[in-house]
Amino acid sequence: MRQRSSISEDQHASAERYIITYADLITLLLGLFVILYATSQVDLGKYREVAQALIYHFNPNTAPLSSEPQGRHVLPGEQGIPQPILPRSAHRSVDEWVQEMERSFKPYTESGVLTIERAAEGAVVRLAEAILFESGKSELQPQALPVLDTLARLLQYMPYLISVDGHTDSIPIRTLRYESNWHLSTARALSVAYYLIQYGVAEARLVVRGFGPQRPIAPNATPEGRARNRRVEIVLTEPQDRARPGYGYWQPGQPVLLPQQSHTATSKP
User: Fold this and answer.
1) Mean of per-residue pLDDT scores for the chain
2) Does 77 reside within a domain?
3) How many domains does the structure of the chain reveal?
């Protein structure tokens, strides 16, 4: 009986032995958090004293640190008055926009899949088919999304007319989904334009157009030329009298003038 009781006591003691380890761990964690909290509270006065003592120890000829701020004025500037910081206008000129585009898309322009041109009326951004779509399709590829995200951010606050134009090469296409190159070019332009609308570009300033193979920029006799012609162009047009968004369309609040019918009777011969 004594042997059984001693065995049960040993088992009970070994079962509770983990509590000692657990208590030691909690104590160490508590000490760690106390040290972290103490070191996070910096006393600037003591910090300056320690810094001055170290500087003087390693370089006795150094002048002591002053506890007062240096300078005659509170802020830099003439007579202590800082220069005003004027907010940058969200509307930029086309030249500034082109420069920003060239900086943002430098890797793509160097590889030739994206080109930026300054035109007389505005600017033209050409996106090659290789970066946007698979051959004969209008669904955007994943690699096109970062380009269009950046493009939407740069177009978001531009108060200009934006035309999204789809172009193809001269090889005819006829599938169940696209009856001709006109259908394919329009579908591709619509995919790009709708993505820009989803990411902040005002749809009232967007125009979607499909030109099929009618406006090539290279000869269609070579594979390289056809690859250049398969593209989507973003045309930025500066606002003018006849180029402003909504020109020629009825606007809410405008009177509707209907043509009047003439009641003059015509005489029969």
Assistant:
1) 78
2) no
3) 2
Higher pLDDT, 255 or 75: 255
Tell me which residue has tokens 């951004």.
125
Assess whether pLDDT exceeds 90 at residue 129. Answer: yes
Residues 38 and 128 in one domain: no
Work out the burial of residue 191: count CB atoms within 10 Å of its CB; fewer than 13 is exposed, 13-18 middle, 19 or more buried. buried
* CATH number of the domain to which 180 belongs: 3.30.1330.60
Distance CA 249, CA 258 (A): 15
CB neighbours of residue 172 within 10 Å:
10
Contacts of 141 (CB under 8 A, 6+ apart): 131, 132, 133, 134
User: Do 18 and 121 lie in a common domain?
Assistant: no
Residue 25 belongs to domain spanning = 2-58
Confidence of residue 121 (pLDDT cuts 50, 70, 90): confident
Is 137 found in the same domain as 206?
yes
C-alpha 110/C-alpha 158 separation (Å) is 25
Could you tell me if 232 and 186 are in contact, meaning their C-beta atoms sit under 8 angstroms apart?
no
Does the pLDDT value for residue 212 go beyond 90?
A: yes
Instruction: For residue 14, tell me if it sits in a domain.
Output: yes
pLDDT at 30: 86
DSSP string, 12-32: HHHHTTHHHHHHHHHHHHHHH
Q: Are 234 and 124 in contact, with CB atoms under 8 Å apart? A: yes
pTM above 0.85, yes or no: no
Last residue of some domain: 32, 58, 84? 58
Does pLDDT of 21 surpass 90? no
The verdict on 128 and 213 lying in the same domain is yes
Q: Residue 253: is it exposed, middle or buried by C-beta count within 10 angstroms (0-12/13-18/19+)?
A: exposed
C-alpha span between 68 and 46 (Å, rounded): 15
